[in-house]
Each structure stands twice: as structure tokens, then as C-alpha cells.
Specification:
This protein is of the alpha/beta class. It has helices spanning 6-9, 22-33, 51-63, 77-84, 101-111, 133-144, 164-167, 180-193, 200-210, 214-228, 234-241, 246-258, 261-273, 278-296, 311-318, 323-335, 337-342, 346-359, 364-371, 404-417, 419-426, 445-453, 455-466, 479-482, 490-493, 495-504, and strands at residues 40-44, 90-94, 121-126, 150-156, 171-174, 197-198, 231-232, 430-434, 437-442, 471-476. It folds into four domains: 6-174, Rossmann fold, CATH 3.40.50.300; 180-241, Orthogonal Bundle (Helicase, Ruva Protein, domain 3); 246-359, Zinc Finger, Delta Prime, domain 3; 377-504, DnaA, N-terminal domain (GMP Synthetase, Chain A, domain 3, 2-Layer Sandwich). It is globular and about 65 Å long. The chain binds adenosine-5'-diphosphate, magnesium ion and zinc ion.
Length: 514
């Protein structure tokens, strides 16, 4: 028999087996007991804390032959079919691949029918924040006049992306992160049933690294078991999770500082060969960069999450960047965190993220250049287009727009379906929806060409996400290259500023310090 991932094998099948979510469980059980079943629930919380699990148990509790009951019997045909995911009346929908308005219209039609066999027709909509505005509007119509026997269960890691009109029509259930002690107890219990001997400290490291997520903790446990077999020590865990690998991250940081793409790819290749988990690697890199920021910002060293012997390495690595550069790199890496987490091709996603970070030019001189400009040059009435401001500390380069959430959903979809194109897309200088056109502006022709080449595929995805045909309009906008020569100025001619404009796609607007 093939190895079944622990997270799947140990998915709770009844409420009593769910850990850490007492409030949610009690709320649901009280509702069932009091026959006050809502027609729409929204499970919100970070990944791996029991959203899908709770929704499935609730579906069973509501539809169980012996139900509605506060605990499903897990024996009847309905319970078994829901567990297996083959019950005709309980449909699970992954909004990440089902975002379009047509899908929801079709869903709306099916809600008009009586359930085929069960008490309720249940729709579990996972990753609900990925639905398009059009899809939400179609859903809203159903939620306003909910058909009898229909129960919606939405699950999302990003409740802030769910429209407020929806939020007000659902019962919200906030799942919390699982505490360290609860995770330790869970890992210990599962190790015991698997006949695995694990050190106390080994379990503790795994639980810590799970960061409140049962799923993440269990996949780490999977990896450690694959490496060390039946008996697990803290050293095994450290080896597999690369805990003592501070030099590796210092190297990567150095390559980012030097803009050395080749070296970055080589280092990641090494990591792949030693079987490193790229999601973890990325998270570790983020915390390493955080440490660099703390060191560069002269924070109290007790705030650093590192062993004392690692401090010199961190100080050395921090010296390669200015504070602004570190902020910039940290911002970039953070922006891609979710992409890396969700990506199917995690290695590729990490590669793209790091190459993007390394593409940024040396910024140290920019502030100085901006600060030292003669007054005459600060006027903003030059004919050069005036768009984005150079915002050193701003984490986003694209102004928020009303349709930003939709566009984000589009980009996420592309990143999932076509990771490489998704990476290029994420580098767009601006993305704007204008009627049935999606305007994408790029500051370099290479990226623009890549996107143009994939236009057809992109338009297809766009149509699904936006719920209507959308044509992709690729534009090249490189003010550094197109600025008229006569308008030269010490600031505009500064190679650092030009590089900055080229890579960040920023225009020179006003150089006063705000
Ligand atoms: N609260 C929990 N109690 C016990 N196991 C959990 C809990 N949350 C998650 N798990 C474990 O993690 C796996 C994934 O959980 P899931 O409910 O799909 O997470 P999500 O919140 O991302 O929907 C489950 O199969 C189970 O093994
Ligand atoms: Mg889930
Ligand atoms: Zn049952």
C-alpha cells in the first residue's frame, strides 16, 4: 500500500476529534441541537487549522441518516460517502479553479432542485476568497433568498477579501491557530499510533515549526519520518528541516545583494538535491531577512530569533545591504509568500521570487541622489509622464483599484496554472481593468514579450475569473529610456536613479523629502 500522508490519514471525522476549535465546535453543536441551522457558514482561519475538516463534519452531522445530530455516526452510507467525497448532495468546490460567474450560475440552477437523497444539498466552497466579483454577485442572489434544504459552507484563509455583502449574510466561524501545547499533544498522539518513537525535543521542534497549523506540523512529521524511519531524534529534525543552516541563508542573502542570479539558482539546486522542502526554506529565508532587518535597524539583539553563535553571521550578512534595500527585499519576498505557499511548483515559485529580489538594483544611492537635487530639478512640471512616485518604504508598487481583488484573483489563478508566466505577470508595473480590457504595463520589453506570447491563455483565464471576455493589452512603459535627451538633469542621468526607474517602473515626480 502506498504511503498515505499523515494529515490525510488523521483528518478528524467527528467534532470530538477536532483540536483547538472548541468555540466553533460548540457553536455548531448548539445550533444543531437547537435546530437553528444557518443556510450559510463561513469558516475563516489560517491554513491547516480545520476549516475544511469542520465543514465536512458539519455536512455529515446535518445529513447523517441518524441526524441532524451533534456528532455524525460515521457508519451510515451517507456519512461514508461524505467522508469519501462521493455524496451527490454534498459538493466540494475549489474556488481557485472555479471562480467564474458561469460556474456559479450553473450552481444556482442546481440549488433549485430538491436534494437527490440527503436531507440537505450542501456546497462546500473552499478558498472562497478566490471567487470573482461576478461569482459573488450570483451567490449573493442565492443567499438573499436561500432555497430550502441548501446549506453553503465557505472556507477561506483571507476573510478580508470576501465582500461585506456576503459576510453580513453568513454565519462567521473564526478558527484560531493551534497552540504549541495542542500541537505537541497531537503530534505525540499520532506518532504513538504510527508506532514511532520520537524525542520530546524532536516533537517540540516540529510543533514550533508548524506555526499553529496542524497540517504543516504533520507534513513536517512526514518528512522527518521519511528521513529517519521509526525513531526520531532532535538531530534528525534539525537535519531535515535545515535548522542549523544559517550559512546557507547568509549565502543566499549575499547573492541577492550581488544580483547573482546564477549563484542563486545553483544554491537552490543544492537545496533540492538534499531534499529540502521549499515552502519551509522560503519561510526560513523570510525569518532570516527579518533578522537582518533587526540587526540593520539596531534592534535589541534579544529580539532576534537566533542562537548566539549565529549572530556574527547575521551581522556580516546584514552589512551587504542598506536598510532601504533590506526593506525592499523583505517586502518583495513577503509579497510572494502566499504564492510560494500555494504554488504547485514550489521550487519554481521560490526561484522566481528570489530572482525578482535579486533583480533590484543597488538602492543605497537613491535617497542621497534624491535628497541632493538642485531646486530647479524638483519641479514636477516636466513633460515626462508623472505616474508612480518613488516610495522607498511602500510595500506595493501598484495603486489599489476597485477591481484589485479581482485582478489579484486573476494573478493567483495564472500563477497556479502557469507559474512562469505568473511570475512575469507579478512583475507588471501596473495592472488596470478598463471595461473589458485588462491593461498591463511593463517596464522592460522582455517581460512584456513573454506576456504577449501567452496572451491567448491569459485571456481565457481572465474570462473565467472576471465572468466576461476580457482582452489583454500589454504596454511597455520605460520612462528612463524614453525621456527626451534635452531634459537631462543630474538626477535623471544618475545611473542609480535610471536603474531604479527601469526596474521599479517609477517615474521621477518630486524629489522633496516627505
Ligand atoms: N483542528 C484540527 N484538529 C485536528 N486535526 C486538524 C485540525 N486542523 C487541521 N487538522 C489536520 O490538518 C489536515 C488539514 O486540515 P484542513 O481542515 O483541511 O485545514 P484547512 O483549515 O486548511 O481547511 C487535516 O486532515 C488534519 O489532519
Ligand atoms: Mg482547507
Ligand atoms: Zn451517519
Amino acid at each position: 500500500m502506498s504511503y498515505q500522508a499523515l494529515a490525510r490519514k488523521y483528518r478528524p471525522q467527528s467534532f470530538s476529534d477536532v483540536i483547538g476549535q472548541d468555540t466553533v465546535v460548540r457553536t455548531l453543536q448548539n445550533a444543531i441541537e437547537g435546530k437553528r441551522i444557518h443556510h450559510a457558514y463561513l469558516f475563516a482561519g489560517v491554513r491547516g487549522v480545520g476549516k475544511t475538516t469542520a465543514a465536512r463534519i458539519l455536512a455529515k452531522a446535518l445529513n447523517c441518516i441518524k441526524g441532524p445530530t451533534t456528532e455524525p455516526c460515521n457508519e451510515c452510507v451517507i456519512c461514508s460517502e461524505i467522508t469519501e467525497g462521493i455524496d451527490m448532495d454534498v459538493r466540494e468546490i475549489d474556488a481557485a479553479t472555479y471562480t467564474g460567474v458561469d460556474n456559479i450560475r450553473e450552481l444556482r440552477d442546481t440549488t433549485q432542485f430538491q436534494p437527490a437523497r440527503d436531507r440537505n444539498r450542501i456546497f462546500i466552497i473552499d478558498e472562497a476568497h478566490m471567487l470573482s466579483t461576478g461569482a459573488w454577485n450570483a451567490l449573493l442572489k442565492i443567499l438573499e433568498e436561500p432555497p430550502a434544504h441548501v446549506v453553503f459552507m465557505f472556507a477561506t484563509t483571507e476573510i478580508n477579501k470576501v465582500p461585506s455583502t456576503i459576510i453580513s449574510r453568513v454565519q462567521k466561524l473564526m478558527l484560531r491557530k493551534i497552540t504549541l501545547d495542542e500541537l505537541i499533544a497531537r503530534i505525540r498522539k499520532i506518532s504513538a499510533s504510527e508506532g514511532i518513537e520520537a524525542d520530546k525535543s524532536a516533537i517540540e521542534i516540529i510543533a514550533r515549526r508548524g506555526e499553529g497549523s496542524v497540517r504543516d506540523s504533520l507534513s513536517l512529521l512526514d518528512q522527518v519520518i521519511a528521513f529517519s524511519g521509526r525513531s526520531i531524534s532532535a538531530t534528525d529534525v534539525a537535519t531535515v528541516l535545515g535548522l542549523s543552516d544559517i550559512n546557507f541563508f547568509a549565502r543566499i542573502a549575499g547573492y541577492i545583494a550581488d544580483g547573482d542570479h546564477g549563484a542563486i539558482l545553483e544554491a537552490l539546486d543544492e537545496a533540492a538535491e538534499t531534499g529540502r522542502d521549499f515552502k519551509m526554506l522560503y519561510r526560513d529565508l523570510l525569518s532570516f531577512v527579518r533578522n537582518l532587518l533587526l540587526v540593520a535597524g539596531n534592534a535589541n539583539e534579544s529580539m532576534l530569533a537566533v542562537a548566539p553563535e549565529d549572530l556574527p553571521t547575521i551581522r556580516e550578512a546584514a552589512k551587504k545591504f542598506s536598510y532601504s534595500e533590506l526593506l525592499r527585499v523583505a517586502n518583495l519576498l513577503l509579497r510572494d509568500d502566499e504564492t510560494v505557499n500555494r504554488a504547485e511548483h514550489q521550487r519554481l515559485a521560490v526561484e522566481i521570487a528570489l530572482l525578482k529580489a535579486a533583480t533590484f538594483p543597488r538602492l543605497r544611492a537613491v535617497e542621497e541622489a534624491l535628497a541632493g537635487t538642485p531646486k530647479a530639478e524638483r519641479r514636477s512640471d516636466s513633460p515626462v509622464r508623472q505616474t508612480a512616485k518613488v516610495g522607498l518604504e511602500s510595500p506595493t508598487y501598484v495603486k489599489p483599484e476597485p477591481t484589485a481583488a479581482d485582478i489579484d484573483a486573476f494573478i493567483e489563478r495564472v500563477q497556479k496554472a502557469r507559474p512562469l508566466i505568473g511570475g512575469y505577470l507579478a512583475a507588471a508595473k501596473s495592472r488596470r481593468r478598463d471595461g473589458n480590457r485588462l491593461l498591463l504595463t511593463f517596464s522592460d520589453s522582455f517581460t512584456a514579450e513573454q506576456i504577449s506570447g501567452a496572451k491567448q491563455a491569459l485571456e481565457q483565464i481572465a474570462a473565467e475569473v472576471f465572468g466576461e471576455p476580457v482582452s489583454i493589452d500589454v504596454q511597455l512603459d520605460n520612462p528612463a529610456a524614453s525621456a527626451p535627451a534635452s531634459k537631462s538633469s543630474p538626477l535623471r542621468d544618475d545611473p542609480v536613479v535610471q536603474a531604479f526607474q527601469k526596474h521599479l517602473g517609477a517615474d521621477l515626480v518630486d524629489s522633496r523629502k516627505r
